[in-house]
Amino acid sequence: MSALSFSHLSSCYLCLIFVLALFHLCSSNQRSDDLLCIKEERRALLEFKHHLIDEGDRLASWVGEKTDCCKWAGIVCDNTTGHVHQIHLPGLNGHCRDFHDTDKELKEASKQQLKGELSPSLLDLKQLKHLDLSCNDFGWIQVPEFIGSLENLRYLNLSSSNLSGIIPPQLGNISQLHTLCLGSFQDWRGESTSVMNMEWLSNLRVLRHLDMSNVDLSQAMDWLQVINALPSLAELHFCYSRLLDIHLHVPSLNTTSLLLLDLSRNQFTNSLVPQWIFSITSLVSLDLSMCEFNAFIPSRSYHIFRNLTSLKRLHLSDNNFMNSSLILKELSSGIGSNLISLDISNCDISSTTLDSLHNVTSLLSLDLSGNQLTDILPKSLGNLCNLRDIDLSSNSFQNISLTSLLESFLECKSPRLESLSISSSGLSGHLPNQLGQLMHMKHLDIGYNQISGTIPDSIRLLSFLRTLNLPENQISGPIPLWIGRFSLLEVLDLSNNQLNGSLSGSFGRLSLLKELRLSYNQFNGSLPESIGRLSLFKKLHVSCNQFDGRLPNSLGQLSKLEELDFSSNFLTGDVTETHFVKLVRLKVLDGGGNNLILRPQLANWIPPFHLDSLNLNSWVLGSQFPLWIQLQKDLVYLNISNTSISSPMPESLWRSFPNLKYLDISENHMQGTLTLSGIPTTLELLDLSFNRLSGELRYVSNGSYPLFLDLSNNLFVGSLLHLLCSDGVKVTNILNLGHNSLSGVIPECWEKWQRLSILNLENNNFSGGFPRTLGHARNIVSLSMRENKLVGKLPSSLMNLTSLEILQLGGNELEGSIPYWLGAQLSSLRLLNLRYNNFVGTIPHELCYLKHIHILDLSNNKLFGDIPRCFNNFSVFSGDEFFRGYLFYVNIGRIINKEVISSDSLVMKGHEYIYSTNLIFVRLLDLSSNNLVGHIPSELTTLIKLKSLNLSRNQFTGMIPEKIGDMKELESLDLSMNKLSGELPMSLSSLNSLSSFNVSYNNLTGRIPSSTQLQSLNESSFVGNKLCGDPLTKHCSRVEAPDTDHEEDNDGSHGVDWGLIISVVSGFIVGFWVTVAPIIVSRSWRVAYFRFLNDLRYMFYDVIHKMFSR
């Protein structure tokens, strides 16, 4: 064959190959355009979907028999064969650790999680290599055994999908698996998967990544042996896996591929770090944090880190090493030149031991937070010139200035620090100018200290600053004008300081600012309009300042704003649609505590936002319940108290807010009846107090009661039977129905209210006996039933309320003796008010066990006997115990703390007052208007912290205790209308706080002691006695009251007439012996004397006989 023909034949052959390839390519593309998916595998996927619950419609594309399953969401097919190779269906976009601030966000996130069951139809996907179902919610079903038959799997991720039970050993059949993720985050319910032994893992010879965090491995005693047999393993995550045995006897491991080892959050039975860990020479990252280790098992040469030459990241936080200095020294000498990240937070490390770190010059990140650093850091740390991030927060640098603390880091010629945190460390002094030398600083956090002074100008040199956190200090002065130069600043937190002045327009130049927190300062002036130029703004908090003027219209331009809090200022004027026009992302609006008027121009205004939290307290919203608020379906928190609403509650109120947790409409003028039926099951706080609601209180049909229910100060009438005794156990903690017109007998069904901590039924018309079943509500801390018409004795079941701190039963008709168990069993009582009842008998000595008592009022009863001398056991009164007030809080989810303030009606300074917020400052003992007798015990004068003592209208006798002047904090002392005698003690002049004093209508005599307080009182405080001197018009004579000048003071008599006493005694002695001596000496005188007595006796009998015979 000629060369030409051969060449021609070759050309034809090549053309034929090209045509065939083109035909195959075209047919392939045509098939791809039609259906790449294999019919059987499409059917398997549809069956898999059928068993799932897809609330977020993530599988909306998984429909039809004629659609290409290779184009479905989460499905990846082989382009040539059409087989399904990969399923990517992680929930929450794979971000399992994301936290959600509101219930709405939580519910939205939950919708994006697949639920239901895992169908074995996946077995029809013969070529499946990748299966990711992480971050879903499968309702704690067991890991299906059939997954072990997916023999071609290379990647399996079921982590954080709410699975439980024993992990099937069949997973060991997937011999080609290189990634296995079965871990999760710690669940609050304590449910997790578990493993009995790990032998099945031995078959996974190519496994490189194993995550069994939060899998219960407490029974898998062979875990280390199996891990040592996996030749390809590079990453091992056993965080919080309940491992117990750390295998101290194992000297070393054979693995040479392991790069990452995470054994954190386990509680090993042995507190020693084993030697085998330091034989893994390939390790790059080691995490042993929160394992309760206290020492290492050293090798023979004690160089425990010498083999870990590749280690770059070491986490040892939250352990309690006994010799941290030695450990840091070994660390520095062993791997000091390679380590880039070291976390030794919460390890009880002291400042002196840090000198050992001077050789770890490669460090980029160092976490020393939560230790016992108290001294200046060693200057040797100046060698760490590569350091980018250091955390020194939560230490105890008391009396150390920030300047001294930073000296070691400023030793570097060019400090490269980018992040510095020294929050909550007790730092004092000023912000030093040296901060300006940290030119690369991006994140500076010095919050929660005692830093004072102004913001130094040197900080403006930190041109790369992105975060500046200085909250909870004592920084004063204005914010410098140069703040606008921080063009990269994203977060500025200066809250809770003493900053003042106005906000300049320079804030408008912070174009990247996302968060501004200036709450709890003393800023004044108006909010600048330039704020509206901050287009990236997400959070603006300027509450609790002194801003005045109008709310800037430019706020309505912040289209990315999510949180707006300008509450508790002095803002005035109208608020219109303009202020909210572009706030489409707004979730939190808190403007309460201002004098603003909402005046939308459109009667049916519909805001652009959908809020989670709304507080317009003290605004003027108009007489009608705002319609636009009812359209905020996502509300969780709503406070429109004191907003001038006078219309009835809308019938659709409960349906309008299905997610509501907190509702406060108190201090309005709302009228009409209240329907509790249908309230959202989510509602935890309902405050409708101080309105004009009326009618009877009916039961809640769905059995749902809020944790906090306040219906006080309304016009409700009738019985409580339906409200209290409906079916079901009640979860309410605080129930306030005081100051209404409720009547009838208090129902006996308190066994349903065992979670109750505060119960207020005061100022109603309840009658009958005290409810006996109330003793079942054992968690009650505060109980008030004062000002009703209750009768009878206190039931002994009340002694079960051992947590009781406040008991107010005054103004009833209770009778019998005061029970001894009030003191013996209820020893936590701090306020006991039984005034205006019919209690009789003596004051039980057991009341002396109430050593925490702040207020004890037993006045206006029928008590008799004396005052127990053991009243000096009251440790708050005597100053042996620091008193605390009567403030209670109820947690409403993650939203708010509701303050509950106790109140009481007390007699102070001669007048009856209602104490509420100032009740915490009252320390009172009132036993007035009883029939108490005897002397006033001198022991009462040891109650040096008592502010009010009232013993008036009793039958006390004797003298006022001389040491009453020791009670130097007394502001009110009333001893009037008793039978006290003697002179007023001179020590009364020492009572410099005394503003109310009454000793009228006693038998007191003498001069009134001199003091500014006593001489400034009205004469009525002393009438009904034989007193003299200022402020009385009666002057003291020398006889009535010896002068107290210097001459008479020197005679030593102290006011006693010794001459009179001597005369009386001498006369008695002489008269006695003149009469008795003759009888003793002369016998005839003795006979005549006794004969005279005998005749006198008969004469007496004769007179008596004649009187009765008539």
Automatic annotation (TrEMBL):
Its main location: membrane. It comes from the Eukaryota. This is Leucine-rich repeat protein. The keyword Disulfide bond does not apply. PANTHER family: LEUCINE-RICH REPEAT-CONTAINING, PLANT-TYPE, LEUCINE-RICH REPEAT DOMAIN SUPERFAMILY, LRR RECEPTOR-LIKE KINASE. Keywords: Cell membrane, Glycoprotein, Leucine-rich repeat, Membrane, Repeat, Signal, Transmembrane, Transmembrane helix. The keyword Signal applies. GO terms for cellular component: plasma membrane. It is found in: Cell membrane. Coiled coil: none annotated. It holds the Pfam family LRRNT_2. Belongs to the RLP family. One of its GO terms (biological process) is response to other organism. Residues 39-78 form the Leucine-rich repeat-containing N-terminal plant-type domain. Residues 1-28 form the signal peptide. SMART domains: LRR_TYP. It comes from Artemisia annua (Sweet wormwood). The chain crosses the membrane at residues 1058-1081.
